[in-house]
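Hi R.,

Here's the chain you asked about this morning:
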Amino acid sequence: MEFQGFKDCGTDKVVFIRFLGRQYAHDPEGRLGTLTAPDGTVLTYAELDGPPAGAEGTGVRHQDQEIWRSSADIENYLYIVYDSGFTQRWPRAEVRCER
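And here is the predicted structure, written out as tokens:
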């Protein structure tokens, strides 16, 4: 499920996806601040030429995009792969908005 953030929480320019019980964010401007994994690793949004080696498509599509995941980093990242090959790496972002 994809949804837009909320203006009153400062996340209205961020798009979130809930996938397999985790939340990931499309936040190229860094509005959410520094995101970190439970082990303290900093997680970042990135635009890539293609999905990482070992990543697999999930079959979940919207228009010209498909959600991909990699067993090597599914805890921290989700990949949005366009038919052109252009890929966005969305970091895990378990942020909450108390409205």
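One quick note: The first strand starts at residue 2 and ends at 4.

Cheers,
M.
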